[in-house]
Design brief:
- The complex is a heterodimer of chains A (about 160) and B (about 80).
- With about 160 residues, chain A is an alpha+beta fold.
- Chain A has 2 domains: about 1-80, Ubiquitin-like (UB roll); about 90-155, [2Fe-2S]-binding domain (DNA polymerase, domain 1).
- Chain A is about 30% helix and about 15% strand.
- Chain A has helices at about 25-30, 90-95, 105-120, 125-130, 140-155, and strands at about 1-10, 10-20, 50-55, 55-60, 70-75.
- In chain A, helix 2 (about 90-95) crosses helix 5.
- The longest helix of chain A has 14 residues, at about 105-120.
- Chain A starts with a strand and ends in a 6-residue tail after the last helix.
- Chain B is about 10% helix and about 0% strand.
- Chain B is built from 2 helices and no strands.
- Chain B has helices spanning about 25-30, 65-70.
- Chain B is largely without helices or strands.
- Classes of the chains: A alpha+beta (about 160), B little secondary structure (about 80).
- The interface between A and B is medium-sized, with 25 and 16 residues.
Chain lengths: ~160, ~80
Amino acid sequence: MTTNISFLLNGDKISYEIKDHWTLLHLLREEMGLIGTKEGCGNGECGACTVIVDKLAINSCLYLAIDADGASIETIEGLASTNGTLHPLQQSFVDNGGIQCGFCSPGMIMSSKALLDENPEASHDEIKHALAGNICRCTGYVQILESVEVARDKGGQNE
Amino acid sequence: MNNLNPDTNREFSVVGKRIPKLDAAQKAMGRAEYIQDIKLPGMLFGKILYSKYAHADIVKIDTSKARALSGVHAVLTGEDVPKK
């Protein structure tokens, strides 16, 4: 079975013929070639595939593409501006050692973005809670939390 | 913190400094290419079948049904590994 769905992807209107069993992760990575969203475990344990659907951070490996019909989706590809300027969260991860092998980074950054969009003054504990579903196998958690806190303190600005 | 080379009394160029990771920005943007992102023409996909039982002896493995499936190029077991 195939279905035609329409959604907003990083602000662009998209219409796509999907198979009903595809996950949103499959649609993004394998069909649309958006490799920034990672498949770590494929069963909702690691958070590497985190994207934002209607302002909520979700595991795209557990989310059926068909459910994205009519939704607004944000992925890591939509964060930096087209001229290459990094989003403040991305810049903070780069500046504060929040990136090691980089495989968890897009998921970490998307979870952080969903939190700070909702609560720009999130506390250390709230950040920890928001990132509880994202695993970093390099174990760079201290720098990751610091990266989010620095971005929060700069209030969404790069300088 | 003193960041001087004790021999030359000059500042170190790397030691004690924050050196930006060369590929950090690419990784932060999701543009870095990982092994899973590479697709080659004619590429085959592998899958490992694990035992359902911990520390069991393998008596025999019947791979005939798996081999008969269309699109299956090979089914490898311990029999395919050279023995001493």
